[in-house]
Specification:
alpha+beta; 5-stranded antiparallel β-sheet; 31 helices; disordered C terminus
Length: 893
């Protein structure tokens, strides 16, 4: 463009010079003629012909000048149009690049950015204001959250490096940024989305690691050399045979590693392989190993590159001294590899692209092929499956071949065991010419996994014992009911129902029978509610929603369920009686949101229990007195730690054996107890919620943790001690610093302390809770997920943090042997935990049958009345090594 502008300027200069010369030629001649013919100022005496000639000359000159001007103007317009077309072409080309481009001038002002750049970072043209410089553009991206954590200087420094800068975007994409400074002082930056490349790189690294792991587990010695005779790889069997580490061997040749005789034999075999027409050489020879002569059988294979030139030498050899012949060993190895392939729990099928014929199928594939694998070789999908399934399979195969990449999908396949859900992966293998040659298909049966995930999702919103909706699901139903009734004038009632006598049943008959009573009560409540919402809100508290004219409909239902529960239960051949106490609130008179309605129904329930068990109470505003009563209990609790009213009970935890005698005690869980000077023994179910609501749990939890660690540090036996941490302790104060200081103060080894948390720690603030758990684990303590299955129990928590242990909620254990769903869930949780390298402990184990089931399924530990109740540690002196008599305290106290 600069050359074109120079050309136009030169043309204009020449034209001007021509005009000046023409004017200069005409004017002096006529002036001379005029000067000769008349004196200056005497125009009347001029010759008319001269005047006309002068006028004509002027007209000619002006016309010429006008033509020149028009020509110049046309040239300039043409030049501008060419420049505009060129700029449009460049802009279009830049905007269609697959990577973002940003250009700045010498003053660091942004002079161009293409559409791809805006698309990558979610920007618009209007965001790029005039005269914006590079650092302002970075600040814009930082505000939008698409810059990463690098400062401006770090960004430019790393982006200008040869490898560039990788920026991680919030949506998981990875952008490679490279920055170049131009000779004129400006710059060019390119932004390329390398998410797929990084994914493939990780997959390649994983595949390489897998292959190396496989080779390390191959019993034969495997090594590789370059063409200079230096080793470039050796597996574990090679290291064991020679007594050399692979790091020492790599980079050295045979002369540097072995005795002269051995080195000569090895080099001769290498050369024979290189000289072999087919690039393979087998032989047997003796080597010196640690002063002993060993006979080895080897095979050497010359591996060639795409140009058919030798690239490296692959060596596989085995020590055949005092063993079978080489052919027997190779046959054994072949059978071993076939056995491994046949026992892979994933169906594998290899198909030839050109004709769709099956070339290979392993034993696991026989399930979906419905025939022996040997019978499938040479057949097509049309030969094996029915017409409908064959068309579908062929269409999916063709889609994978056309894509030339990996296609993953889930779909049902008919098998001899019925319809099963399979995760199918199709990958196309290309030949050297880049054309599809083989289609590799794997089919993984995910039916059980998806069913387990479905059960886990069900667990999030249902009670594990009764299978009723839990508190979270009940609040959701309340919210939906409110939205449906708002503005319509309709009413509905919320009932809080407390089961009377459950504690007595548990104390007399045990928790197992108490849990069965809860299940039967849940059934009667559902039958009485006639399709209404029934939920289990807590241990012995249920919630119901009833529509209709209120409070009549709610009171009628309350009386009906009272009569239903009052009828005698027959549980395990025992007659058991129970009753209910009910509190009720009405929408919209007693609250317009779910939390208020439930809280007011709870207040009414509290009032009903204060009056008399078995009564029904409708919420009244004066029930706020209950709040004042709870405040009194809160004040008493605040003084309990200072007055020494709190104590610790310890419940043993044992390894899951097939009997109590085989269940070795491995630790204890520390549990808080409160002996009130007036009220007597206060139940933890009563004072723990108050402590958590008021924040006293932080102070109380510190006392419990310190006392538990001090007690455990004094045990002669190094048993584990488990302590519960409340979510409130994570939200307030430095829980990591507290644990660290208490470990130092008491002298307890960190590995003996196990901190039990519920998912509430992560629900409140996931990122903060996760960071605190990681810091706690860095101290060396163990972290356990408590009450797994009773709340949300999100699997994402197990994925995000490597818990040491999962505690299965007792609600699932109590139904073992009676409810196949409970057994399936317990089995699924055990498999899940072991798959994540986490140990499993089951709470609430009260029968030998439960213990035997858990031991059979591979559960790591158990806790419950079968091993021992929560008691002062003095009752378990023998177990902690303080007495010689090592007797197990079974259901004592």
């Amino acid at each position: 463009m600069a050359e074109k502008n120079w050309h136009v300027g030169s043309t204009l200069l020449i034209a001007v010079q021509a005009v000046v010369c023409l004017a200069g030629a005409v004017t002096p001649a006529r002036a001379f003629a005029l000067s000769d013919s008349s004196a200056p100022g005497d125009l009347t005496k001029l010759d008319p012909n001269v005047i006309w000639e002068a006028l004509i000359a002027v007209i000619v000159v002006c016309s010429f000048l006008a033509a020149i001007a028009l020509w110049i103007h046309s040239s300039l317009r043409q030049t501008r149009r060419l420049q505009l077309r060129r700029n449009a072409f460049i802009s279009s080309a830049m905007n269609n690049l697959n990577q973002g481009v940003v250009m700045t001038d010498a003053q660091s002002r942004v002079i161009f950015c293409n559409d791809r750049y805006l698309e990558i970072y979610g920007l618009t043209r209007s965001d790029i204001r005039a005269s914006m410089n590079g650092r302002e553009l970075l600040e814009l991206r930082r505000r939008r959250g698409v810059l990463g954590g690098a400062s401006d200087d770090e960004f430019y420094e790393k982006a200008a490096s040869p490898n560039g800068l990788i920026t991680e975007l919030p949506d998981g994409r990875a952008i490679l940024v490279k920055f170049f400074v131009l000779p004129n002082g400006g710059s060019v930056a390119t932004h390329l989305d390398v998410s797929e490349q990084r994914k493939l790189s990780r997959q390649l690294a994983s595949t390489k690691q897998f292959l190396e792991s496989v080779l390390d587990h191959v019993p034969a010695c495997v090594a590789a050399k370059n063409m200079d005779g230096c080793y470039i790889f050796a597996n574990s069997a090679y290291e064991r045979f020679w007594g050399l580490s692979r790091d020492f061997a790599v980079g050295r040749n045979a002369r540097e590693l072995f005795a002269p005789n051995s080195a000569s034999s090895i080099e001769a075999a290498d050369q024979a392989a290189l000289n072999s027409p087919d690039g393979q050489y087998r032989n047997e020879f003796e080597v010196d190993r640690a002063g002993a002569r060993r006979m080895v059988a080897s095979i050497r294979i010359v591996v060639r590159n795409e140009s058919n030139k030798p690239e490296f030498l692959l060596i596989v050899f085995e020590d055949i001294t005092d063993r079978r012949s080489l052919s027997q060993e190779l046959e054994s190895t072949k059978k071993f590899l076939e056995l491994v392939v046949d026992n892979i729990p994933v169906a594998l099928i290899v198909e030839q692209v050109k004709d769709g014929r099956y070339l290979l199928a392993n034993r696991s594939a026989e399930t979906i092929l419905n025939r022996r694998r040997e019978e499938t070789t040479g057949l097509t999908a049309s030969d094996i499956f029915n017409a409908k399934e064959a068309r579908l399979i062929i269409a999916r195969d063709e889609a994978a071949i056309k894509k030339r990449g990996m296609i993953t999908e889930e779909h049902p396949i008919s098998t001899k065991d019925g319809l099963r859900l399979f995760l199918t992966r199709r990958a196309t293998v290309l030949n050297d010419a880049g054309e599809p040659q083989y289609l590799i298909k794997t089919h993984e049966d995910v039916t059980d996994r998806r069913q387990t995930e479905s059960r886990m999702a069900h667990m999030a919103y249902h009670d594990g014992l009764t299978d009723l909706p839990n508190r979270a699901a009940f609040l959701q139903a309340l919210t939906q009911m409110i939205e449906a009734c708002e503005g319509t004038g309709e009413e509905f009632a919320v009932l809080c129902v407390d089961l009377d006598g459950l504690k007595e049943v548990n104390d007399v008959f045990g928790h197992a029978l108490g849990d069965k009573l809860l299940i039967e009560v849940a059934h009667r409540l559902q039958d009485s509610a006639r399709g209404g919402v029934v939920a289990r809100l807590s241990g012995d508290e249920f919630g119901l929603i009833i529509d209709g004219k209120q409070p009549e409909a709610g009171l009628a239902l309350a009386r009906q369920i009272g009569e239903a529960v009052a009828r005698e239960f027959q549980i395990d051949g025992r007659p058991v009686r129970a009753g209910i106490t009910t509190g009720m609130s009405v929408f919209p008179h007693n609250g317009t949101d779910g939390a208020s309605l439930l809280a007011n129904a709870g207040a009414a329930l509290f009032r009903a229990k204060q009056k008399s068990r078995g009564t029904i109470s409708l919420y009244q505003p004066e029930m706020d007195q209950q709040i004042r009563d709870r405040r009194v209990l809160h004040q008493d609790l605040s003084m309990a730690v200072k007055n020494g009213e709190l104590s610790l009970a310890f419940q043993p935890q044992g390894a899951a054996g097939h009997s109590v005698a085989e269940s070795e005690i491995i630790g204890f869980e520390a549990l808080a107890r409160w002996q009130h000077p007036v009220r007597g023994q206060v139940s933890p179910a009563e004072f723990i919620p108050i402590a958590e609501e008021s924040g006293l749990i932080v102070e109380m939890g510190e006392w419990i943790l310190r006392e538990a660690c001090r007690e455990a540090a004094s045990w002669p036996k190094p048993l584990q001690v488990a302590v519960n941490l409340s979510p409130a302790q994570f939200m307030h104060g430095d829980v990591v610093g507290l644990v660290h200081s208490i470990l130092i103060e008491t002298g307890l080894a960190p590995g003996r302390l196990e901190l039990e948390i519920t998912e509430g720690v992560l629900i409140e603030d996931f990122d903060r809770g996760l960071a605190l758990l990681r810091r706690l684990k860095a101290l060396g303590v163990r972290i356990s997920m408590d009450d797994f299955g009773s709340g949300y129990s999100s699997l994402s928590y197990l994925q995000a943090f490597p818990f040491d242990k999962i505690k299965i909620d007792r609600a699932f254990i109590i139904n073992l042997g009676r409810n196949p769903q409970s057994a399936a869930i317990v089995r699924a949780v055990i498999d899940l935990g072991h798959g994540l390298d986490m140990s499993i402990i089951a709470e609430g184990v009260e029968t030998v049958d439960q213990l035997a089931f858990l031991a059979k399924e591979g559960c790591d530990g158990v806790q419950g009345y079968l091993l021992g109740k929560p008691l002062p540690i003095g009752k378990y002196a023998g177990l902690v090594g303080r007495a010689e008599a090592m007797e197990l305290a079974l259901k004592t106290g």
